[in-house]
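Pasting two entries for a bug report.
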Amino acid sequence: MAARLPRSTTLSAAVACLASVSVLAAGCGASSSETEPVADSGATALAAGSPSSSIGIAPTGPAAGTELTLAFAGDVHFTGRTATLLRKPSTAFGKIIPALSGADLTILNLETAVTQRGTAQPKTYTFRAPATTFDALRAAGVDAVSLANNHALDFGQVGFTDTLDNAERANFPVFGGGRNATEANAPWIVTVRGVRIAVFGFSQIQELSSTWIATETRPGLAIAVTTDRAIAAVQAARKQADLIVVFNHWGQERNQCPTSAQKDFAKKLVKAGANIIVGSHAHTLQGAGSLNGSFVAYGMGNFLWYGNSASTDTGVLRLTVQGTTVTKHQLIPAVVSGTGQPVPLTGQAATKLTKRFADLRGCTGLAKAPA
C-alpha cells in the first residue's frame, strides 16, 4: 500500500482559517493535501443554459500523468457498541486502519450528528456522537466525510450546527452539508500531488427532507430529491477541478441492486462530468462498474456500525486513478465484527466476498471496469 503523503497546510491554512465558509474548509492541516472551499456560484448560470464548454475536457499538466489511489468506505457512527471505541480514538477503527491510511485520499460517510445537545427528531433511529469522532477519523487516515445522509440532523438544527462547529474546531473537512444552501451544495476541493479533486455529497433520502434541506437562510444538507441544482453544481465544478467525485446517500434499504432512481441520477451525474460516483445507505453492498467511461460503486454498505444490519459484508473500495480514468478497482473485503469495527477478511472468506462484490454488478446495468 502506498505511503501516506505528508500533510500540507500551504494553501488550506490560509483559506480554512480565513474563509467564512468554514464547513467546507479543509482545515489548517487536516488533510494530506492542499485544500480549499469552493462555492457553487456558477451553478445557477449553468442551470439556466449558459455555456459549459469545459465539461469533458481531460486534465493537462501534472494531472494528466499522475497516478492516485483513492479509498472509499460506507456508513460510520459512534453510538451503541461503537461509542466505547472513542475511549481511545487512535485505535477506534481497529485493524482496518492500514486500508484507509494507505491511500492518497480517503473518504467515507459520517452517519451521525456530532453533538451532545439538541432534540431528537421524530424518526425511528437517531444517532449522535461526541467531538472525539473527528479525532478517530483523522487517526484512521480519513481525509474528509460526507454529511449528506439521513442522520446528520438527527438532533435538529442545534445538533447540526454543533456538528459543523466541531468539524471546524477539529480542522476536519466535511461536505454535503453547510450553514446555507450554497455551502451545502458546493464541492470540497483538494489538491493531491498536483491534481485538483472536487468532492460532492448529495442525499436522495426523502425522510424529513423538506426540513433538513439547506436553504439560503437555513443550515442543512445537499438533498437531491430533485436533481437540477446538483447537476448544475457538478457541471460548474468542471471549470475548477481535474477530477470530480460524488458521494451519494441513496437507494432502498436491504436492496443489493440499485433502484431506478439511483441509475437515473448516476447517468445525469456522469453526463454532467462526474468521474467517480460512490454511494451508501442500503445497509448492504451494491455493485460497481463503468458507466460511459466513469466509475460507479452504488453502495458500500455499513462500515463501522452500532448493531445488527441486513448484511455484515463490507470493505474498503480502493481505486487507482490516472487522469480522469479509474484504471483499477479493488474491494479490500471486511466484515462488521461484534465490536462494530470492520475487520479485514483473509483466505477463503476474503475470496468469497470479493467474488460476491464482483457478481453484484449483474443487476446494475454497468459495464465491467478494470480490476
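Entry 2 (this is the one that rendered wrong in the viewer):
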Amino acid sequence: MNKKPKIFITGTMRTGGSLLINLLSAHSKILILNERIGYFRFMNKRYSPLNNQNIDLLLNDLKLRLKYRKNIQIDPNIIKEDILKYQINYKNIYSSLLNYFLKFSKTEILGEYSALQWRDIPEYINFFDEAKVIHMYRDPRAVLSSWKKLSSLPNNSYLNCIFNWIDSTNYLLKYTNIYLTNLYMPFKYEDIMKNPEKKISSLTKFLGVKNERILQQPSFWYKKFDPKLVNIPRSAHEGSNIVGFSTKRINNWKNNLEEWEIALVEYLCSDNMKILGYKKIINTNKLSKNIELGLKKISKNNFLKNSYQTFLTTKKGSNQYPMDPTDPRSWGQKKDPSKWFVDSEEGKEYFIEKAKTSKKIIEKYL
C-alpha cells in the first residue's frame, strides 16, 4: 500500500503561499498548515540534548505559541506519549507532531507551509520517504512591492526580501538539478495566475491525488477548512479575503514601486531573473543613477549592508529576516500585524504564562 505524501511548501514572503495553502486545503483529502507547527523555524536542533525536560519545554512553547497567536488548543501529553514510543530524535518528534495534527484536523494528507526554510529541504527529504516538496517563487519586483506594503520594519529593511529572493532561487536552481521531479516541484506564481487549470492539474499529479473540481472554484474553498488551521489570503494591494486567481496581481508592482526600487531589484537579481524568465524594464540610461540611490539606502542599514557584502563576495543571498522570527518581540498582533505582539494584552499574558510553566517544567526535573 502506498504511503500518504507528507507535503512541505516554502518560498520567500509574498510568493502566493496563502493561495496555494487554501487551494490544496480545499481538497477533500489534504490540509496544509500555515505556520502552525513551524518545525524547522522553532524546533529543529533548538532543544538539545533531547531529554524529557527539553521535550516538555518544546511542547510547552508550541502550546503557548498556538494558544496566544492562533487560538488553537493542543494537548502536549498526547504528543509526548507518541514521541516516547520511538527513538527520541528530531525526526521522530517532527513525525509525532505531524501525526497529532493529522488526527486533530481529521484529514488524510497533511503538509505545512513555512516561509524562508528552503535550506532545510534536504533534511525534510531525508526525514520522510514520502516527502513531497513544493518550492514557490515569484517575480522579485512583485515580492518587493507586496512586502514593502505590509512590512512595518524601519530604515528600508523591507529591501532585505531582495536578498531572500536571491537565496531562494539559488537553491531552487540547485535543487532542480539534484532532485527527481516526483519529489521536488518548483512552483511559479505567475503560472497559476495565468493558467489555473493547467497548473492545478500538474500539482495534483505531483502529489498523487485526484484533481477535484473544487480546486478551480475558489468561492467554495473556505467552506472546506477551519480558519484557525488555515489563513485566508490577504493581498497587499487589494486587501483581505482575496480569493482565487487574478492576472492583475502579476503586474501590480509596476504601479507601486519607485524607479530606483525596480532598478535595484533588476541589478541584484539579474542572473536568476534571466534564467527564470523575468524581463527587465528599466532603461539602461537611467540604471546607474537609480542603482546608486538604492545602494545608498542599503548602506544606511547594517543588516542590509551585511547581506549586500555577502552577495558581492559570494553571489549568495540570505534566508534571514531583519528580526528573529522565533523571538516573540518580533511577532505582530493577530488582528493587526503592523502592531507588536508584546504590546498587546495577549502578549503580556503569554510572557507571564511562559515564565510560570517553563519554571515548573525545569523544577520538575531537578
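Dev reply: Rendering is fixed now. As a check, the viewer should reflect this: The mean pLDDT is 93.
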